[in-house]
Amino acid sequence: MSDSVVLDPVDLEILRLLQNDARTTYRDLAAAVGVAPSTCLDRVARLRRGGVILGHALRLDPAKLGRPLEAFLSVQVRPHRRELIGPFVERVRALPESRALFHLTGPDDYLVHVAVAGTADLQRLVLDEFTSHREVARVETRLIFQQWTCGPLLPAERPG
Questions:
Q1: Which of 50, 67, 81, 90 could staple 62 via S-S, CB 3.0–4.6 A?
Q2: What are the HTH asnC-type domain coordinates in residue numbering (predicted)?
Q3: Which pTM value belongs to this model?
């Protein structure tokens, strides 16, 4: 785990505003937090270098792209050794159906969020891309009926 970064109130305000609208211009952001645009740019650059800001994401609707069925695959890898899990992780991350991959504690080693065209595609994915590999001991599939995005890390409104 990375160490936490010391953030002052201006940094926190910049992060609060950006997390709610990452397309905010530096000029508007600077005006909102009460600093010069060049200072704002320097602060955002420092937050990026420090690993606080990880990037910008574009969210796409899988259903509108022909992948309306989403599922979680709980996967056990046996034996759970570094020389096997590295290639497994890279292979799963390279699959176009993979949306997210989590390494877990407990009975399952990985949780894979996938989006596919339908049940036949999901079956092909499980059989051809997971259980056909010797190190995959078990795959359990859970369909996702609906999902919601949860709240931001920082309060959406300015504290006060």
A1: 67
A2: 7-68
A3: 0.83
